[in-house]
Write the structure tokens for this entry.
Amino acid sequence: AVYRDPYLNLKQTESLFNLLPEISQHVRRLWFNGFYTAETDRYILSIISNCPNLELLSVPWTVLRRGTAEDWIDLLNVNTGAGKPLYSLEIQGICLPSEQAKQLEEDCSPNPLEDSRVDFSALRRLKIFGNTLHKPVSDDDLTTIAKTATNLECLDLTNISTVSVAGLLNLVKASRFTLEVLEHSPRSSDGFYHPYPGHLESGEHICDLLTSLPRMRDISISIPTICP
């Protein structure tokens, strides 16, 4: 049998961008799918760091779990003095094979979102989709992101049941004056069963919040209750 390196494309892309920065500076969109190991996360983050004018990016959630604060400062590219800030970010989740899951669970990397220098204020579109059992995106993550994600125009949480309505609303409130498109649907196999909605403020009405958003034009949301 002939061995083929499963990560060859990533390695070659990283080498090309390191060798010829005049090429990588013209890259506007990157999409990574099917790579979930510590090694591939390093390649992905290295490739991203070589693209200062990147606008649209789709990455596996493992990059969030293994990346450093410096990696995410480069990724979002706010006030770095090089290129332009990231416009659109997609984070994909998936259930991993047992060995990859074990490696991720044993990883002790600190959460990069907890570093105040990681700034989502220039991001206009955020999509988080796909379910995983292994260090999934949580309400705590959304709450931390919401501290700086104040200019989102499009927010999409799809096919994910590890975040609640409360986590979603933290992001909605943070971008209440800019948000135009909102989509939220739990994992499809959950049907119409809604998990615990989270810790909502006492007396808070979701409908009142959603109808008060001045720029909202397109909304599709799954919520546990609705006002009469």
